[in-house]
Amino acid sequence: MENQPLISIITPAYNASRFINETVQSVQNQDYKNWEHLIVIDHNSKDNTLQIVQKLSEADPRIKCITSPEAQGAATNRNIALKIASGKYVACLDADDLWPKNKLTRQVHFMETKTADFTFTAYHRIDLENKKQGIVHEVPEKVTYSDLLKNNSIACLTVLFKREPFADIQFHQQGWEDLSFWLQILKRIDYAYGLNEPLAYYRIVPGSRSNNKIFAAGLRWDTYRKVENMSLLKSAYYFSFYFVSALKKYVRF
Length: 253
Known about the structure:
The chain is an alpha/beta fold. It has helices spanning 20-28, 49-59, 73-84, 103-114, 145-150, 177-186, 213-227, 232-252; strands spanning 7-13, 35-41, 63-67, 89-92, 118-126, 132-137, 142-143, 160-162, 192-203. Strands 1, 2, 3, 4, 5, 6, 7, 8 and 9 form a 9-stranded mixed sheet that branches.
């Protein structure tokens, strides 16, 4: 691990007992070994997620089991992990998603080749039984702040960014918390660089908020109005791009 900078992987977990073992295993199976996995258990989680993660942590000290002091949601739980993170890089992985074993190795190499501060990758969608759904979600070579307002091509489980330049940025409770975090980063740098290789598996869970298109659209609108503080006209302008992009995705996937 001499030439492998530490990566802090942050995972908020709420009622995640069905998939958390498999998610953690996909991290343990990485051919990149110098990581810490910060799993924050939501205070309101009612299943045995906590017990599962505690057991995993006892067997592998790279896994850190953190309990949220109160029910605060995914955004605040991610912020708790960010405060503890000590890696050169930070990666995000939700409690039901997966990575192929070469994810971290390929993306760190890509970042160092590009001397990039913030990167993301293509990904597959999978169902509850890990079967691939549709075609690969490909990504552009570069994304700017304005690009991201029009179309969120950055999936949370694919990101890798340097911790130090963005140590003061936090996830917002309002709007779509992942999107608003990426927008804050892109106000400071010219581009996020896309690696167009499918290096993650995004699980489609029926009934989840990310799978609710109307709810997602509402969060998108709130991001424009309440987080980015855009005018009604400017919000409508960017939302029109999002709407068209969402329709295209629906047809394709």
